[in-house]
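Exercise 7.
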Amino acid sequence: MNAEIIAVGSEMLTPHRIDTNSLYLTEQLNLLGVDVVFKSIVGDNLRHLVAAAQHGLFRSDILIFSGGLGPTEDDLTREAVAEALGVSLRRDPEIIGKLEKRFADRGWKMTPNNAKQADVIEGATVLPNPNGTASGQWLSGEFEGRERIVILLPGPPHEMKALFEQEVRDRLRAKVPPAHLFTRTLKVAMLGESAVDARVAPIYKRYPDVDTTILAGAGEIELHFKTRAATLEDAQARADEVADLVEDELDDAVYSRDGQSLEQIVGYWLQMRNATLAVAESCTGGLLAERITSVAGSSRYFVGGAVVYSNNLKTEFAGVPADMIVRHGAVSREVAAALAEGIRYRCESTLGVGITGVAGPGGGSPEKPVGLVFHAVASDTGTEVIQRSFPGDRKRIRRFASTMALDMVRRKLM
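Solution. The predicted structure, written as C-alpha cells, is:
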C-alpha cells in the first residue's frame, strides 16, 4: 500500500513555518511497510483543499491530513474531505459535551465557534485527542472501486504524534498487508552527481523493484536504494544486492554505507591508525575543525590547530616563511604545503592539514579566481597538495573545501 500526506495551513506557505509533521508521519508509515508517494502543503482555501482531497483519493491508498481541524473560520479540512467524498457532516453532541467540560474545568466559557470541532464526517470514527480540543477522524471504505483509508489529524505536533500513536498506528497495522521497507544509503566523496550516475545507472536500472535516489551536496553524493518485501531480511538483501554492485563500481570513493558522516569516518580511521590530526585553515575559517569536533570523542585524535586568516598569523602560528607568501601569494600550492607541515610540527601530530583559497565573493583575479582552493596533507612520508576550483557562493565553496580536506585525510589513512 502507498500513502499521501497533506499538510494543511497557509502559514506553511510562508518563509516563517515549515511542515515537520510529514517527516514524523513518513517515518511511522515506513515502519509499517507503507511507502509515501506524495506530500503536499495546501493553504486554508476550501476549493484548493477539496481538489487536493479528490486527487489524493484517486491516486493513494492512504490519505492523511494534518491540520485544519480547529475552531476558526479558516479550519476547513473536515468540510473539504466531506465534499470530496460526497457526504455530509453531522455535529456530535457527545463531543460538544466534552468540549464544554474541558473549558469549564479550566474556568473558561466556551465560545460558539468551538462547536465546529464537533463536526464529524459521515461514516467516520472519532479519534479522541487527549492533548487538545480538535478530535481526529478515521474513514475506511471503498472509493471508485478501491478501498481507501482517510485520516484527519490535528496540526500541533505534540497533539498529532500522541493521537497517531494512541489511535492510528494499530488501526493501520490491522489494515496494511505485512510488509517491510528497507533503505541502504551509500555516501560518496568528491565525485560529481552526473559522473556518479553515468557509472552506476547501468547497474540500478537492472533492478526495477528497487527505488534509487541520488542526492547531491557540496562534495558529497548520497545514493539511496529502497525496496519492500514480506520480511525485513528479504528487503535488506535485495537493497544490498544493488548497493554492493554500486560500491564495487565506485570503489574507494564510497566512504559509508551505514549513515556515518565523513567526519565520523575520518575519526574512525584516525583511531584505527592510532594517529592524530592538526589543521591550519585560512579560507575555511575554522569550518574543518568544527566538523571534526562535532563528533563525540574527537579529542582522542584531534589535537587542534589554528585559523590563520592573515598572512602574519600564517607565519606566526604555522611557520610559513614570510618570503614564501611574497613570492607565491597566500593562495598557492607552496603556502598550503607549508601550512600543513608547519601546523603538524607545531602540534606534534601524525598528520597536518593546510587549506588556503579564495572563498569570495570578492578577492579573486584572473590567475586566482573565486573558488580556487589548495588543500595539503602532511605526514612523515611527505606532503600531498591538491588544487581544486569549486563552484557556488562563499558558504558552498567553504563546505567543498572542508570536504576535500577530510577526504584527503581519509584516503591517506586508508
